[in-house]
Amino acid sequence: MGGARLRAGLIGLGAMGRNHARVLGLLDGVDLVGVTDPAGGTLADGTPVVPTLDELLALRPDYAVVACPTALHEEVGMALAAHGVCALIEKPLAHSVVAARRLVDAFETRGLVAGVGHIERFNPALRNLRTRLEAGELGEVFQVVTRRQGPFPHRIADVGVVKDLATHDIDLTGWVTGQEYASVSARTLSKSGRAHEDMVTVTGDLADGTLVSHLVNWLSPLKERFTAVTGERGCFVADTLTADLTYYANGAVTTEWEALRAFRGVSEGDMIRYATPKREPLLVEHEQFRDAVAGGGSSGVVTLREGLRTVEVAAAVLESARERVSVRLPAARREPTGA
């Protein structure tokens, strides 16, 4: 990468923060100049770990990666915006819709590049799936079903499974289909003794009538990351653990039974598993954000406004579960011209 090297900072050295530090240390054209974590010290490569955000800002980063607990995203993000520092904020964007809106306004009004770390958008299987849907390979899309389950992650303490895990599925569903959520209906359980929910089931529909279904939990010994999109020509299945995409085509079987001819059923046809290059999603995400900061645009970045919409849908899911009603979502505000 040519031109001046970018100076990057990192806030948070938890499980995800350490992954960000690893990738930033390898990223062409970028120098990781400092990390903020209460423990202080240095990384193995000598990068300083300072205890406060003010000390990190004194190192003059061009952009920072926010990987601290979700409850702190608003405070940290607002401080970065106030100092003119671009930011890649881990998902979810914020702990509440109000906080997410404040972050959107803070970065947009200053013209700063900012993004949300919805890493599934950079998974090879989902990128391939989206490209094929955009090309019309499935025809009309009927339904999106996701399953995201596994054991409880002890790294999470401040939010429940809806904001931590289901936000992946909310974002990827809207992204691969190009459609907004119109309504959601949800039920939750809390069985681990924590204040937050650890299991949720969601049903709903998108603006074009596509049906959606999400099963998300921290209560299963089975780790699963499954996305199935069914349409008029067949079904795509993406496994984001292995980054595999498989296509199940509808078969064509004729029948002489006149009474059944009116029923437009399908039968099993060809199955294809696509061979695609499998680059690490976190590295691709960082490359896209680096390029956006260097170029002053937001191409390839999950914008804060997109992150806000995901927070709004997650809030509707929690409202639906709490009130035991279906919740309709208003149309999202559009990105500002030129974003």
TrEMBL record:
<dbReference type="InterPro" id="IPR036291">
    <property type="entry name" value="NAD(P)-bd_dom_sf"/>
</dbReference>
<dbReference type="InterPro" id="IPR055170">
    <property type="entry name" value="GFO_IDH_MocA-like_dom"/>
</dbReference>
<dbReference type="Pfam" id="PF22725">
    <property type="entry name" value="GFO_IDH_MocA_C3"/>
</dbReference>
<dbReference type="GO" id="GO:0000166">
    <property type="term" value="F:nucleotide binding"/>
</dbReference>
<protein>
    <submittedName>
        <fullName>Gfo/Idh/MocA family oxidoreductase</fullName>
    </submittedName>
</protein>
<dbReference type="InterPro" id="IPR000683">
    <property type="entry name" value="Gfo/Idh/MocA-like_OxRdtase_N"/>
</dbReference>
<dbReference type="Pfam" id="PF01408">
    <property type="entry name" value="GFO_IDH_MocA"/>
</dbReference>
<feature type="domain" description="GFO/IDH/MocA-like oxidoreductase">
    <location>
        <begin position="127"/>
        <end position="236"/>
    </location>
</feature>
<dbReference type="InterPro" id="IPR051450">
    <property type="entry name" value="Gfo/Idh/MocA_Oxidoreductases"/>
</dbReference>
<feature type="domain" description="Gfo/Idh/MocA-like oxidoreductase N-terminal">
    <location>
        <begin position="7"/>
        <end position="118"/>
    </location>
</feature>
